[in-house]
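=== Structural record ===
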Amino acid sequence: MGLRKGRLVTLDQVPQWTGVRDREAQAPIAPRRASRRVNVGRVAIGGGAPVSVQSMTTTKTDDWAATLDQVEQLAAAGCEIVRVSVPDQKAAAACKKIKSGATVPLVADIHFDHRFALAAIDAGWDKLRLNPGNIRDAQKVREVVRAAKAQSMPIRIGVNMGSLAPDIVQTLGRTPAGMVESARRHIRILEELDFFDTVVSLKAHDVRSTVLAYRMLATECDYPLHLGITEAGTLRTGTVKSSVGLGILLAEGIGDTIRVSLAADPIEEVPVCWEILKSLGLRERGAEITACPSCGRVQVDILKLADMVEKVTAEYRAPVKVAVMGCAVNGPGEASMADVGIAGGKGMGLIYRDGVKVRSLPEAELLDGLREEIEKVIAERYPGYR
């Protein structure tokens, strides 16, 4: 099935903005790429569904209790789909116990041995991640695909630049074109078996290769795309690379589900995913904080105050917008564009609600005053959130 190409919206094509909320809702980014819908448990991927957030456990899967505990920690942080490696028979044996306690859809990460895929299917997991090409026996591939199809279990074809087939590396190299050719091969294997409940990912460790590969495949098929920069790096470098790469693609309308891969506690991946989606206006979850970086003009301890505000708002899921500003130059304007805002001064601060000054407090009382106003906004506008 052919795909329409994304079309960038220019400013003159955007309706007149009537305020900050309308402006954010009509941000000039490309329309979402049209893709078919795939259901992973209760979470839909593609077909216009919201871009979903994924991560992966780092525990030994055969320790089912520790794995399940990490799955639930990820879910509590906002992860909507969790991938779990099933690398051996002990891990396969733990699949039923893990699934029985999980509150979010689970993806079994499978390589080489088809029996582990069958164990995850039998345990009622929600999706497989595998490359049909690295299960060399065609009959075993057919067995896995038939079993997945019988259970309406989707399969993600996960292509990584570092694990391309030798003949692809020889002819095309470890390049975006090589990754796309690998995806084509694996897609054909599934399609020849009359299987189309497929998600595809094309991951490299560098941003440019990843972006080019996704752009190429996005024009060739309508399968939903899972975005990620593989082996992106540590918490800081991995966050930057993932934000740039995923941000480019999402702004072009490409991508249906995302993971930020960090060499860190996997719980750290989840808020980064959400901040990427929030920054593009694609999803809302939790407070959005605008904070002054501080400078010589600031006459309050803005860094300490911003850190404390972030900790206070972390407990809420409501998408309340909070501005923490340090001086009278940009402060009042930025604060006026938030649900609640502070504009600091000399030992004092002004608190705004929707651009209207509502309180003037000493610096020592600002945090409590801000908390009270945030609570009022949540109660009035987001009564279903906490």
